[in-house]
Design goal:
Elements (H helix, E strand, L loop, with lengths): L18 H11 L6 E3 L4 E2 L2 E2 L6 E3 L5 H10 L3 E6 L5 H13 L3 E5 L6 H14 L4 E2 L1
Parallel strand pairs: 1-4, 5-6, 5-7
Antiparallel strand pairs: 2-3
Helix pairs in contact: 2-3
Length: 134
């Protein structure tokens, strides 16, 4: 992976928690540039999103508007999913497809294999993006 000085990486979806915040924490810890949009008030399913995440509040709209803007501002979208695509994860895929930008959905139900990791790395190299929506 490249450092922030060579290729900035972004991560969004702050209405969610768990893996999403984990990706933001990874970016901060490893010196990657991160950012994106968050609903007004920095509200998430589990409370208020910490100011340590470099996210910009949207004036109006909620998670759906935030997702639309994050996809629009990205070169590509990577979705790592368990179970069926639904809710905001499905909305993210639909926005990415409508935008005509690269989108990869990784179904991680069977677990993460070395082959799956290799496929994601190959895809990331192919899209050669400066900004990624996860």
């Amino acid at each position: 992976m490249h450092r922030a000085s060579a290729r900035p990486a972004r991560r969004w979806r702050p209405c969610r928690y768990g893996a999403g915040r984990g990706a933001l924490d990874f970016a901060i810890k490893h010196g990657y540039i991160h950012g994106g949009w968050t609903p007004h008030g920095r509200l998430a399913e589990d409370g208020v999103i910490s100011a340590k995440y470099q996210l910009t509040e949207i004036a109006e709209g909620g998670c759906r508007q935030r997702t639309r803007r994050n996809v629009a501002d990205s070169y590509a979208t990577l979705i790592v999913n368990l179970g069926e695509l639904d809710g905001s994860t499905l909305v993210t895929q639909v926005f990415a497809e409508k935008s005509g930008k690269p989108c990869l959905v990784v179904q991680a139900d069977p677990g993460i294999s070395e082959g799956m990791v290799d496929s994601v790395i190959a895809w990331l190299r192919c899209v050669s993006m400066m900004c990624l929506c996860l």
